């Protein structure tokens, strides 16, 4: 069909039939495209059909429809599994072990209008007679509704493409998935949930296809356990004003193949992430030094270059805890093969750095030579990674060719091999560090995620923050971007603001600055001073980061949290994306715009102290605070107890005074060395009576005086020694 034919097809219907004419033109274009490319394979569409029979079983059962079947399982941890066409929860890369045991109290029973339901402690799962699946609160309020899936099967065989549409309440907000979006909320539009394409806009190719949905009715997490590529299209709902009708939020998932299966878990955000961790595995505990300052060097200049840059940091009073050697230290870029000409005595270099309290980390260029759904030889890979430990490396970070990202299962298996291989060879009292750029649900069992330099320019600050928050909500608490330098002028301001932000994120890595490849001193004395303050504050907070890491391992709670985390029912906080919580004690408000020296901060309920001035603010409120180039606004929650590094290197307690007549408290988990048993959490209670603040440690034998030094802040706007 020519363009003239297309015009005739439009005018032939007349003005009154404009809508029909538009559909005619679109159909003509599709036929024209088909004529140009030749006929494709014939496909047949399929839907489940009506219910035929039901087979109850432990925790749920199987519902058979005319053309498919649905398996429902409510596990003892409260998670709900659903799988179509005979898909079961195993095998799965995501699961930490075997599928959890079914909840013996949950049974499949008849529902209204020919449907069926499973009533559990935290949710009710209702299935209509045509296969629509609803997840409801115990009170019967809908959390989500998944319509029956639709398959397109090629008559000549091959994988079946499939699609499923979903609905959520009008007030619901979507968060996630993983680190593939430019905000913690995947704004309306289409997203790629798979690792089949490289990240854009600085997004890391880490695939955790998780939707965390927050609504007035409650919070729930959806995980679609399918590693194939596809498209996820989300549309947030709109509540009707006055007598207007609500428009529900919608999702449409189209997959190129693979099983139609997933998990749903509901409750408070903390309960949801705890259930997710029990399903896919507790996050591994990084070594304590991993929460310090990491310096990334390509290693092109060899051992002398590494010594020069390390000395430059130490001479200028810049804390340094690890040096990462990039692919430049490898011979020909080959994994595990060190360039002996430039690094002839790597073990000696590692030992020198360790005496300064600095660990050496090796880049490993991971290549994906396996098919999707298969793993590399983990046993062989463990031997290779063990060899890295023998060279003196305390950890590895996987770099990949961005045009060929690792398959989901392969990336997870390599992370596992690295973790186990290093663990076998490092000293018994140490833990290895594993960082990956690709991954899948469950990767947190073996290590963290690094996202490179992320998106460039000032928009990259928001993207970097969004990636860390999004990954935390998907069960990966240890992640962070790189801080790299650029040219002069605005670049120095951007460098400072990026460093100040990253100083409060779990992983802090900096790169070369300026043509000389040095550190922040390349920008001059002013920037050097600001960098020294940011890195010094990071070192002071190391005990707090270690505590948060231990709590993440035990509870699944992210270290970096959206500001709505403790109060998801507060709608205004759901849309707040430019501040975040570090644990439950600190609120961080990074500067995300050039030239800004003040910024507006939304504070949640309660009393908050500006940590720089000691001034108290009462939330909920929007406050305008100073944000000079030398610092970003950070607020402490009244009554909080933070473990911090004292001047003598020991741990002391920084206590922020509760409001008069109120109390507070906090947990401290000391790191008793990298090996051995999990340390016991110390619980502290803080009370205030007039101007006096009392801190007690709660033990099985009752409350007693803290054995650590205590510094009370927030009294009359000034700190004081207790």
Automatic annotation (TrEMBL):
MF (Gene Ontology): hydrolase activity
Mind telling me which Gene3D superfamilies this protein's record contains? Answer: Glycosidases (3.20.20.80), glycosyl hydrolase (family 31) (2.60.40.1760), Golgi alpha-mannosidase II (2.60.40.1180)
Q: Which UniProt keywords apply?
A: Glycosidase, Hydrolase
Pinpoint the Glycoside hydrolase family 31 TIM barrel domain residues.
Answer: 283-365, 412-548
Native source organism of the sequence:
Streptomyces griseorubens
**Stretches with biased composition (Basic and acidic residues):** 696-708
Q: Where is this region: Disordered?
A: 658-680, 696-722
**Glycosyl hydrolase family 31 C-terminal domain ranges (all copies):** 556-642
PANTHER family reported for this sequence: ALPHA-GLUCOSIDASE, HETEROGLYCAN GLUCOSIDASE 1
Which family, according to UniProt?
A: Belongs to the glycosyl hydrolase 31 family.
| Record's keyword annotation contains Lipoprotein | no
Q: What is this protein called?
A: Glycosyl hydrolase
